[in-house]
Request: fold
Amino acid sequence: MAKDEPDVKAMPVPRTHVGDVPLSELKKQLEETNLSIEDSYAKRDYLTRWMSLIMLNLAKFKTESELKAAHLITQDEAELFVLQAWVSEEVINKVQLLVQKYSLACLIESPDGSEQPPTLLKNTNTFAGGEDIVKFYQMPNYYGWDPSIVVFFSFALFFAMILSDAGYAIVFLSVLLIK
Reply:
């Protein structure tokens, strides 16, 4: 390395300035950086050593909060148990058989317009893919219609168009490469 820079046209490649920091200083900075990285790894290990305990307590808290939520919708006394739940129309007969078998009291009501019951989508195995897509994007309202079949055919058509475009591209590419 020269003290003065040579002429720009003296070399056939562009000039690269490496800076004025001595090599010993660069090695020292590299060593400090490596030590800093090791310290960061040690700090991460220190901070994550309690992770399994935290996850265990989080799972316990989640279970307890779900149990509290279940207690809010039930009333449990020594000789009385009350439960309010949504049941699909297809299983009402099974619920009534259970009620008769155990001599229970049961009140079945249809939802009024102000309630928002959960939506139950029921499709055949053929159109289950459309149902999965609907559930992934947005579950329809209970009072709305089930778009699963429409979504199934729309996605099938959409992917058919994509594949046909890819097929045309392959044909055109092969024609171009053969010439």
Observations:
- The chain has a mean pLDDT of 83.
- Residues 22-73 form one domain.
- The two ends are 54 Å apart (CA to CA).
